[in-house]
Write a sequence for this structure.
């Protein structure tokens, strides 16, 4: 079960994405239609232009010439054309070449344009008297060329804008989440502090009283106080910049397990194996690390219905150098926590870290979200599901810096 709001959120994301694709698709299609139409119109215009050229050269009717010259030949102010007689360039129009070029330079450019025109359209042949011919080379107008590339440019701009918006949005959302986690944790630690210190006072009072000092109740009260102190310490560590220290990995892990072992069913067997020297250090904040191990192991116990084995294996990992970092990577170590429980289906492997995702009747779905947060943000390590098979078990891998 996922709390409904996250479900809705991913549906909204999908909807926005679909809409963006739709708009993009419509833009491309519509511009294509425009390009098509404009291209046909230019083709008709250039055909008329060629016909007029031929008419002007061949005709003896001089009365209409000024009119044709003005209305058709000079009216073409958009389509670039080059008229040649097969050997020389006779006339050019709308090429957009800069004025005052050196003759050699100008010739080179003309040749380039001519080649380009030849590549696009075959020239229109204009038959002349005396068995000679002119060739009319032409090209799409600048407007048409721009229109062809317009959708690409527009989409690139829109995509980069969307990307920027997304990054800014998720950054601010993450910052907000951080404030909520930190604020809540601080507040909790603070609120627990007062009753806790008065409990410590009561315990002291009982210890010194005639009536109660050798009663088991004092001992038990002491255990609960210890437990409350651990909880307070965890919350206050989440609520502040955590202090990481180089701790002995094996001992720290063993202590975390020893504490848990006494509090879960006897039918769960814990084992620690290590491929590393026993004095291997790792950068750890002990109260937070204990919390992570506890969350993962409690889930394992739930997944095994209180019967099975949990194996923790300390191992070396190869650290990949990240290409965007200049510094050499810090050496890292891993803890693989494997249970013999019911496993996680493949399509849910990432969901288990989403806050609110739980399959339990009385679950909150915060345990793994918190664990990942502690490892990723506070320890700059990584936490992920290394392996899981439905009906066989699951391995969580926890990577820490040394
Ligand atoms: N070791 C595991 N084996 C199988 N499923 C697991 C295991 N650990 C976590 N899960 C799944 O991930 C979910 C989320 O876990 P968690 O964030 O600790 O929340 P909660 O324990 O409150 O459900 C669990 O409900 C369970 O479905
Ligand atoms: Mg849990």
């Amino acid at each position: 079960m996922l709390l409904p709001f996250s479900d809705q959120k991913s549906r909204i994301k999908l909807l926005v994405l679909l809409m963006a694709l739709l708009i993009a698709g419509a833009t491309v299609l519509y511009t294509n239609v425009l390009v098509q139409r404009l291209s046909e119109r230019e083709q008709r215009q250039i055909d008329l232009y060629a016909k007029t050229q031929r008419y002007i050269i061949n005709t003896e009717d001089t009365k209409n010439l000024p009119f044709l010259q003005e209305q058709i030949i000079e009216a073409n102010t958009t389509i670039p054309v080059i008229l040649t007689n097969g050997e020389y360039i006779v006339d050019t129009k709308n090429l957009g070449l800069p004025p005052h070029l050196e003759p050699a330079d100008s010739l080179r450019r003309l040749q380039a344009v001519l080649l380009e025109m030849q590549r696009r359209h075959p020239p229109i042949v204009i038959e002349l008297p005396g068995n000679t011919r002119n060739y009319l080379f032409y090209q799409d107008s600048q407007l048409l060329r721009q229109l062809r590339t317009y959708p690409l440019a527009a989409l690139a701009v829109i995509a980069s804008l969307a990307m920027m918006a997304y990054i800014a949005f998720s950054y601010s959302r993450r910052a907000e989440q951080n404030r909520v986690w930190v604020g809540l944790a601080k507040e909790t630690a603070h609120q627990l502090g007062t009753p806790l210190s008065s409990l410590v006072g009561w315990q002291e009072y009982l210890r010194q009283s005639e009536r109660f000092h050798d009663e088991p109740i004092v001992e038990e009260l002491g255990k609960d106080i210890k437990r409350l102190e651990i909880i307070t310490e965890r919350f206050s560590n989440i609520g502040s910049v955590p202090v990481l220290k180089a701790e002995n990995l094996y001992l720290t892990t063993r202590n975390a397990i020893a504490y848990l072992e006494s509090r879960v069913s006897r039918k769960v067997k814990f084992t620690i194996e290590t491929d590393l020297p026993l004095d291997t250090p790792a950068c750890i904040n002990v109260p937070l690390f204990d919390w992570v191990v506890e969350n993962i192991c409690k889930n394992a116990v739930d997944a095994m219905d209180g019967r099975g084995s949990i194996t923790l294996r300390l191992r070396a990992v190869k650290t990949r150098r990240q290409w965007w970092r200049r510094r050499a990577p810090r050496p890292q170590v891993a803890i693989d926590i494997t249970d013999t429980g019911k496993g996680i289906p493949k399509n849910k492997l990432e969901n288990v870290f989403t806050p609110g995702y739980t399959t339990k009747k009385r679950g909150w779905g915060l345990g793994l979200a918190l664990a990942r947060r502690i490892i990723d943000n506070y320890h700059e390590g990584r936490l992920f599901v290394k392996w899981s098979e439905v009906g066989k078990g699951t391995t969580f891998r926890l990577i820490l810096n040394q």
